Amino acid sequence: MSRTSASSSATSASHLPGPAEQDWAWQADAACRGLGSRRFFHPAGERGEARIARDRAAKRICAGCPVRAECLRHALSVGETYGVWGGLTEEERRGLAGRRYQ
């Protein structure tokens, strides 16, 4: 590789966006961190009282979460279609679709 092409490669790489760590840093403070996804995402075929009970338990965890607003904002911005995010189920988030969450 010539010196010119090495130099232009370095210049091109410097124009790449930085790490997206700031977009995900809120997760480090999440109340759900380390609890596993089973509490927040229903298994196939879960219905009725079992699903209601799991959703309620997940929402209790979310209720005291210091980053609940960031979590919900993320779910709405990327269109998360499953699970409890920011204290809302997928059905509840669909009700917010098109509305801006602050």
Task: Give a written overview of the molecule.
The chain has 102 residues and is mostly helical. Helix content is 49%, strand content 0%. It is built from five helices and no strands. The longest helix has 16 residues, at 48-63. The chain is globular. The termini are far apart.
Structural descriptors:
disordered N terminus; globular; 102 residues; mainly alpha; 5 helices; single chain
SSE blueprint:
Blueprint (H helix, E strand, L loop, with lengths): L2 H12 L6 H4 L23 H16 L4 H11 L11 H7 L6
Distance between the termini: 50 Å
- The number of distinct β-strands equals 0
The largest β sheet comes out as: none
Q: Strand content of the residues, in percent? A: under 5%
H/E element order: HHHHH
Structural class by helix and strand composition = mainly alpha
Summarize it.
This protein has 102 residues and is mainly α.
